[in-house]
Amino acid sequence: MRLSTLFGFAALTMGRVAIAQPAPPADESVLGELIVTGHAEEHVTRLAVLPSLAPDLEDVIVRSVVRHDLELSGMFDIVAEKDAPPGMYGFDDPVNIDAWRNLGAEVIVKVAARGHRGGRIQVLGLAYFLNVGKDPVYEKRLVVEKADARVTAHRITDALLGAITGRPGGFASRFTYSGRWGKSRRIFTLDSDGNDLLPVTNDQDTSIAPTWGPRGSLYFSTSRSYSPFHLVLADRGAEQAVPLSVTGSVFGTAFNHDFTRIALAISTSEGSAIWTGKANGTELKRVSTTPVATHPVFSPSGKLAWIGGDPDTFGSQRVFVEGQPVSPAGFTAAAPTFCDTEDGIRLVYSVGVGGDREDLVMSGENGGKIARLTQNQGTNTYPACSVDGRLLAFFSTRKHAEGSRGLYMLSLKRWVTARVSGAHGESLRWTPLPPATKP
Q1: CA 388 to chain centre
Q2: Looking at 130-172, which runs of residues are DSSP E strands?
Q3: Are the CB atoms for 129 and 141 separated by under 8 Å?
Q4: DSSP 3-state of 214
Q5: What does the pLDDT read at residue 18?
Q6: How many domains does the chain have?
Q7: Are 62 and 156 in the same domain?
């Protein structure tokens, strides 16, 4: 395969069609209406996160992480810190329920941390429902390593959301994506709140299309000196090539929810196709029929989606689910993902809307009625959903009060958006962390 063709397919895999894009059809009504932010009559729970006067770094970290997570969730009206009533806010100090009730709080959250034996830390999490009484409805005390303060705080947030809403949160998780590094691309990881951005691949390689595998391992495709892209597994700091039963350049990888099946976008001199088989890369079978097929992704129910079409025909790149096109004809679609929401599984993807801009739309798992998630807010690409189905992350070039282009989160409960990080790239994937191990 010619090198220009090889890297043209790589661009296609990352959601950019390597041809000039004319204006899409004038009638964008097929993309549905924009879901507006909230309603005047909507009740938003007023939540208080108790302040802390403790100087301990672990206390500052735990409390700030939990508060920021709850803000990013978009689900609450959080009481401003400046409005906190006077009082004692130490680790063992009781919560003044009446004082917070007078501020209109409906839910009170207290999180704290302090030093413990052996250089470890003790972490406390409490939640009170003021319409229930003065006893906590959630209480957790943990002893963890100091290095685990942040991830423990995320886990407490998830448990608090479970206590408050009946559905645990998804903040104990992390992202991966491919981003530009000079003239090539590297694989990066970062926490769900935008913290700890790290490059994890060699800056001499071109690495694309990462995804999460079993036990939190990381898979991606890499090329050195314009060689074909081959699949690599990175686990516990070591990298190894993954042998496959089909030869060609690998431009996309996905696993199903229990990591028993793999889907791969593999290109040859004849084009690219989606192949599925065992998780170890054996017994692969081709499932796509279009000249080009890229960006595979599994639904929580086991369905497989990808982008298929003809690279020489504008608007033919559509989302396929189980081999059937489900996105609107005439609009170039890219980067599908699935969200396991409280209202059922939803399919989210981007569509080209002219002027080199892209918007995000949402439909049922198998297509059907479409709603717009973005409109007239720059270019929005590569959606990824939290494990609890309440947050959608994506890259955007929009202007925002917190900055401009970067990584954003949209609440699929209240339709409010927050900027998480200045990171920007392609092929965003989001996965929960492995369960915590008991000390």
Answers
A1: 11
A2: 138-145
A3: no
A4: helix
A5: 39
A6: 2
A7: yes
